[in-house]
């Protein structure tokens, strides 16, 4: 009997497959519960995939609690990932949203939640993702423009009249802000500006809301803008990393407080804002003053003010009592009498001093006048004439006596005496004339001196007698000429004292008189 040809359908593998298909066909007719299907999915994942996998993607929505929860994504898919605390402690860096990482772990299907997740046992960094790179580039650009500088940050008002809250009406952040505002200071009005806080078109809507608030802030008495939303992934918060939002915040005439996401999240809107808060509640606490604290502060200031006023009043009362005890108020007439007595004494002293000074000046003037009178040419001539007359009288008396003794001899003696006397008198007269010429005005002028006269012909004796610009006449020996005063300099006054002509000794006069007769 010959061998039959090979039939693939009759092999052992084919028979097993046919049996399995028949069995599955029979099972497919029986409905499965959700638990049964979930168990089959978990079993299929465990049997069809390796026990250890390496996965590459971008971190998004990182939440750090006891364990790390985040999504790993690429351009087409997203997978939930978990790093348990025991594995997280071994990671040498802190993952951030937008970072490219490589995970090593296993796939897991959580049956009670019906969720597939990747249980990562190790995490290694690969680099920044596209969103992280865009965030860094915009940060560098705005930092170069100075939008992050502290010098651009404006202080918040102590007690704002109205606060505009820019957020989503349906978000939990709004309720946190409203609860905090009602608890801290209900007197401050809150204006809600409802905007989308994530997704396409959210950034232009937020920027438009900030600009519109700034345009009506003065008329609507809006003092602060509070920009906020709750937590989320980097993609959820990306609207607050757009340049259009940052520019609207930077150009806002009203201070802006930003609180975006969780405390670990950082957005460009927060960096540009005048103040950044970690949560919406904290932002509301920064914006809305604590009414109770303000009330306590006012009460404290009131007590301090009362103490200051009371102390000042006590000081004023003490000064008033001291003033009441002052002698001026106790007996004003006695004080006035003492002042009048002192004034009278001063007046008498002043009168005495003035009279004494005037007397001294009068005596000095008389002395100078007498000195001038003695040196006056006419006075000198008069004194000499008196002395000459006296000598003539003595001579006549002597001649009369001599004539009684000898008429001829006395006559001759008289002639000789007369001639001698006349010669002596002529000589003395010439000497006197020379002296007069020397001390006279013309003689002084011939010696190189000059005399200056004003317009009235009066001699100038002091710098106080002239004024700048005045025209004067200066007289010298051979004539006179006009001068104009340009300035004056006063020097110490030197008093010139000239010696009087020496008086003749009486014995010499008697000798000369006796010499008339040759004795």
Protein model, in words:
This protein has 519 residues and is α/β, with parallel strands linked by helices. It has 4 domains: 95 residues, OB fold (Dihydrolipoamide Acetyltransferase, E2P), CATH 2.40.50; 157 residues, Rossmann fold, CATH 3.40.50.261; 79 residues, no CATH class; 42 residues, no CATH class. 51% of the residues lie in helices and 17% in strands. The strands form 3 sheets. Strands 1-2-3-5-4 form a 5-stranded mixed beta barrel. Strands 7-6-8-9-10 form a 5-stranded parallel beta sheet, with helices on both faces. A 3-stranded antiparallel beta sheet has the order 11-12-13, with no helix packed on it. Helix 13 packs antiparallel against helix 14. The longest helix is centred in the last third of the chain and has 44 residues. The chain starts with 11 loop residues before the first helix and ends with a helix. The C terminus is likely disordered.
User: What portion of residues is helical?
Assistant: 40-55%
Structural class: alpha/beta
Secondary-structure element pattern, one letter each: HHEEEHEEHEHEHEHEHEHHHHHHHEEEH
Overall form: rod-shaped
Number of strands: 13
Instruction: Kindly give the count of domains.
Output: 4
At CATH level 2, the architecture of the largest domain is: 3-Layer(aba) Sandwich
- Poorly predicted runs are 493-519
The value of Rg in angstroms is 65 Å
* Count of individual helical segments: 16
Largest β sheet strand count, sense and barrel closure? 5 strands, mixed, barrel
Question: CATH H level of the largest domain: which superfamily?
Answer: Succinyl-CoA synthetase domains
Text of the CATH class of the largest domain: Alpha Beta
* End-to-end CA span: 226 Å
**Would you tell me which CATH topology of the largest domain applies?**
Rossmann fold
Strand order of the largest sheet: 1-2-3-5-4
**Percent range for β-strand residues:** 15-25%
Please tell me the overall pLDDT. Answer: 82
């Amino acid at each position: 009997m010959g061998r039959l040809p090979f039939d693939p359908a009759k092999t052992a593998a084919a028979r097993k497959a046919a049996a399995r298909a028949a069995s599955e066909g029979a099972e497919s007719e029986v409905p499965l519960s959700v638990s049964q299907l979930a168990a089959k999915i978990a079993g299929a994942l465990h049997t069809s995939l390796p026990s250890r996998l390496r996965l590459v993607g971008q971190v998004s929505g990182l939440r750090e609690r006891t364990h790390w929860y985040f999504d790993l994504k690429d351009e087409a898919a997203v997978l939930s990932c978990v790093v348990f605390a025991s594995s997280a402690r071994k990671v040498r860096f802190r993952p951030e949203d937008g970072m490219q990482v490589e995970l090593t772990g296993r796939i897991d299907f959580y049956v009670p939640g019906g969720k597939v997740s990747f249980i990562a046992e190790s995490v290694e960094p690969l680099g920044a993702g596209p969103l992280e790179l865009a965030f860094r580039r915009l940060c560098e650009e705005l930092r170069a423009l100075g939008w992050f500088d502290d010098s651009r940050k404006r202080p918040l008002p102590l007690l704002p009249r109205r606060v505009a809250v820019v957020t989503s009406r349906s978000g939990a952040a709004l309720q946190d802000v409203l609860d905090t505002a009602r608890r801290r200071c209900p007197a401050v009005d809150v204006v809600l500006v409802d905007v989308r806080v994530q997704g396409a078109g959210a950034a232009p809507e937020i920027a438009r809301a900030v600009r519109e608030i700034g345009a009506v802030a003065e008329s609507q008495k809006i003092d602060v803008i509070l920009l906020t939303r709750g937590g989320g992934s980097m993609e959820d918060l990306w609207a607050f990393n757009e340049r259009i939002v940052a520019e609207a915040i930077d150009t806002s005439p009203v201070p802006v407080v930003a609180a975006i996401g969780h405390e670990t999240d950082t957005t460009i809107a927060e960096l540009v804002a005048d103040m950044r808060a970690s949560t919406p509640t904290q932002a509301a606490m920064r914006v809305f003053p604590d009414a109770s604290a303000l009330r306590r502060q006012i009460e404290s200031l009131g007590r301090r003010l009362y103490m200051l006023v009371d102390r000042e009043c006590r000081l004023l009362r003490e000064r008033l009592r001291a003033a009441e005890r002052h002698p001026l108020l106790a007996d004003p007439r006695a004080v006035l009498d003492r002042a009048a007595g002192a004034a009278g004494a001063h007046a008498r002293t002043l009168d005495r001093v003035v009279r004494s000074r005037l007397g001294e000046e009068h005596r000095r003037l008389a002395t100078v006048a007498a000195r001038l009178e003695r040196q006056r040419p006419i006075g000198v001539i008069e004194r000499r004439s008196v002395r000459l007359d006296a000598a003539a009288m003595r001579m006549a008396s002597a001649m009369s006596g001599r004539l009684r003794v000898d008429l001829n001899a006395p006559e001759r003696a008289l002639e000789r005496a007369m001639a001698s006397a006349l010669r002596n008198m002529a000589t003395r007269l010439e000497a006197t004339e020379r002296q007069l010429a020397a001390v006279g005005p013309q003689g002084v002028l011939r010696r190189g001196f000059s005399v200056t006269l004003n317009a009235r012909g009066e001699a100038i004796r002091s710098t106080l007698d002239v004024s700048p610009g005045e025209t004067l006449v200066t007289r010298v020996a051979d004539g006179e000429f006009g001068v104009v005063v340009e300035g004056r300099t006063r020097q110490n006054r030197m008093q010139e004292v000239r010696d009087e002509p020496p008086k003749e000794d009486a014995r010499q006069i008697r000798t000369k008189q006796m010499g008339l007769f040759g004795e």
